[in-house]
Write a sequence for this structure.
């Protein structure tokens, strides 16, 4: 067994997991995991409030680590390493998790592995599907990121595309806000979309047809706002039409990226919170099949933020001999591909 304690605290979920990096099935790999969502604390504000998030992590995390070790029937001394998200994310929350991991590593004299949250998402499909091998083409779609990357191995990422404005999850969340569906928005939009007509509201498909596979969703969000203000269509028709427009963009952009990727990709992979969306998974399945590739997507619970993916990324890193010093810094920004060129028209997102 290669036992790793994983900790995640970069946004609004506090999570801890015990991972066996040598397990050969998903069930054997996740020895125990716990997650506490802060949805109720943030709901009145319609989004995540960083200060509230950080304070909630402080209250919940240490007892959660004790509880998850008890669930596993193990102690800190049984762990081979402690892995925690060190960024990117809301810096207060990241610091709570990283400092906790440092204290545990110091107290138990264990190696520390500082994990990039995005690498957690990027490798989560390998946690779920032991037959997934490098290299693969990854569509990473979450609340803060929307990228397409070649994943050639641990720490080996080449970014082919990113968003020039909003992330896909952000577009779902803003649409939910416009329609008064509350927070978190993505699952609510998906549910309402099932009751609507996806052809009812004419909405733009930004960047569709462009030769580079980048994304843009700000114009779509503005169009959703105008459609709502016009008062002609039902909310269900707006939700369905929005989701269809967003998925048309994702499929078109991913098709371009499949054409631009290096030869030898073994699979099309989707990860990150929005990968929990069933309509997105269906659309990508068809696209992957067109290219003779399997679509690999983790189970929905491993798509949204969790500590199993952080423990797993820690296990992959630790198996390769990587660990980090106790003075490793928390990083609000931490791109997977540090060499990616800035995109014309883009803001500051990494
Ligand atoms: O990966 P994640 O849990 O947190 C980040 O690292 O951002 O992703 C959260 C995002 C949110 O924007 C949420 O609305 C979206 O994923 N999301 C969904 C669904 N489930 C979560 N979007 C669309 N459909 C869903 N079923
Ligand atoms: Zn995430």
């Amino acid at each position: 067994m290669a036992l790793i304690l994983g900790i995640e605290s970069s946004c609004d979920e506090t999570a801890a997991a015990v991972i066996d990096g040598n397990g050969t099935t998903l069930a054997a790999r996740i020895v125990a995991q716990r997650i506490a969502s802060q949805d109720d604390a943030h709901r009145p504000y319609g989004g995540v409030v960083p200060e509230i998030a950080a304070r909630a992590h402080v209250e919940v995390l240490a007892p959660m680590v004790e509880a998850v070790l008890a669930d596993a029937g193990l102690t800190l001394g049984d762990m081979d390493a402690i892995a925690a998200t060190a960024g990117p994310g809301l810096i207060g929350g990241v610091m709570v998790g990283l400092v906790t991991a440092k204290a545990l590593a110091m107290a138990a004299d264990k190696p520390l592995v500082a994990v990039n949250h995005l690498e957690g998402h990027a490798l989560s499909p390998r946690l779920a599907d032991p037959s997934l091998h490098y290299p693969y083409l990854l569509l990473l779609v979450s609340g803060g990121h929307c990228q397409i990357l070649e994943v050639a191995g641990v720490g080996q990422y080449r970014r082919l595309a990113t968003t020039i404005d909003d992330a896909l999850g952000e577009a779902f969340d803003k649409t939910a806000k416009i329609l008064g569906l509350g927070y978190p928005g993505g699952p609510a939009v998906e549910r309402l979309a099932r009751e609507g007509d996806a052809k009812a509201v004419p909405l733009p498909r930004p960047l569709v047809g462009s030769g580079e596979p980048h994304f843009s969703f700000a114009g779509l969000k503005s169009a959703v706002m105008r459609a709502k203000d016009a008062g002609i269509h039902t909310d269900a028709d707006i939700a369905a039409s929005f989701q269809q427009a967003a998925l048309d963009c994702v499929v078109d952009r991913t098709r371009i990226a499949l054409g631009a990727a290096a030869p030898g990709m073994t699979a099309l992979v989707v990860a990150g919170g929005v990968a929990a969306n069933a309509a997105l998974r269906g659309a990508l399945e068809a696209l992957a099949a067109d290219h003779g590739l399997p679509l690999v997507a983790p189970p929905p619970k491993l798509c949204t933020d969790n500590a199993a993916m952080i423990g797993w990324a820690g296990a992959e890193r630790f198996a390769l001999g990587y660990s980090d010093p106790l003075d490793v810094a928390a990083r609000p920004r931490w791109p997977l591909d540090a060499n990616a060129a800035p995109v014309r028209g883009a803001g500051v997102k990494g």
